[in-house]
């Protein structure tokens, strides 16, 4: 997705793999739109606190430690009570700050439940993803890829177990204070796995938009993106006509790449020289993930920027007065370029932590291959192109990446875990639901599909413009949390 951003980043001279650029640019623009909508400047933010963690939780000979940041909201908490503990699990980004326990993109369903439950809320930063502050980093420097050796979901879960022991002592908690873990996306994966792997510590979990089935070739991502543009209900505003126009436009672009006349036509419509469109790498950057920003994961029906959501994009893509589908794509691209701010294109100087975890644990390489449902220009974004950075940046061969993914599913159970008191909510237009739990694998694990919703939209701070389905999902989640707290939730560790 968001190849417009990938293309512009390349022009600005940043050197990263196409896969890394696409991920970072998409996150950046989604975060920009979220920040524009959810202002926190008037809120009193929590200050970071720190606890000492092991550099390696699984090596008893390693005595190195580091300081992990955490945040607390104890506004309604009464020490000595039997009220629950809500744990917001940190993840890959954006970096946690004091807003995480008062206006949280991943856990505000917990924030908004504090006054009723009188719970105390903690948010714990994930190891390495707080290394923008090197004093809160597991390593002292990033000289060589070995510095990322201590970055994994298993280390992060052990950190949470250590935090549980720390918080229990520091805040005078007892067995009566039942812990519920919350998270969305990768933090949602961790929130669920914390319940599954440490059931004696955490009582229940809300694992939102959690793609728990690790997979090498994630064709399902762009398949769901395409399907999302056919969804009309719940103010999404898509249609089959819109989907077909996007697909036809990108197919035409693919044909134009093959001829001199076609490349000249692309030059007239989109800029650059005809020669630019003859280069295979440029073709992939330009059209492999779409020639414009096509939100599905980050779709927001109430956003206000031009062509910032499915509904507004479809209004352009079904407007025959603009011309044929390729002309509509050109218009869409130009409109979006007017509002995307320049600072969205900035690239961190820190290592690609999430990229490293995809190589060592998860995969999730989003392809657009010939014969799939992907409605971008097919055949340009292959599995090899998406995962090549594992070898180039981290010296991890593709065969090892595949082995790592299989081990992750063996360790956690993939999309068929065994447990109790877990709920896996997912959004209908969120491409990550293709690797989440959509059918309950056992009586103790619930699922919820939120009609028309994007990536864990219900975990965001509530606004009057939210979809009815998102508000209903929040009520359902509250009901599940109340149910979990009212029952034993006995479970054996998997």
Radius of gyration using CA atoms only: 23 Å
Estimate the strand proportion: 5-15%
Shape: globular
| Class derived from helix and strand content | alpha/beta
| Tally of contiguous helical segments | 16
**Strand tally:** 10
Can you give the mean pLDDT? 92
Strand and helix order: HHEEEHHEHEHEEHHHHHHHEHHEEH
Side by side, the strands of the main sheet go: 1-2-4-3-5-6-9-10
* Helix proportion range: 25-40%
Largest sheet: 8 strands, mixed
Unreliable sequence segments:
1-21
Task: Determine the N-to-C terminus distance.
Answer: 36 Å
Task: Describe this protein's structure.
This protein has helices at residues 3-11, 18-37, 108-111, 114-117, 153-170, 186-197, 219-228, 240-256, 260-270, 280-288, 310-317, 325-337, 353-362, 383-394, 398-412, 468-485; strands at residues 49-54, 65-73, 85-89, 120-124, 179-184, 204-208, 215-217, 363-365, 422-427, 445-450. It has an eight-stranded mixed β-sheet with strand order 1-2-4-3-5-6-9-10, with helices on both faces. A two-stranded parallel sheet has the order 7-8. It contains 16 helices and ten strands. The chain is of the alpha/beta class and 494 residues long. Helix 6 links the parallel strand 5 and strand 6. Residues 1-21 have low confidence and may be disordered. It starts with a helix and ends in a 9-residue tail after the last helix. The protein is globular and about 75 Å long. The longest helix has 20 residues, at 18-37.
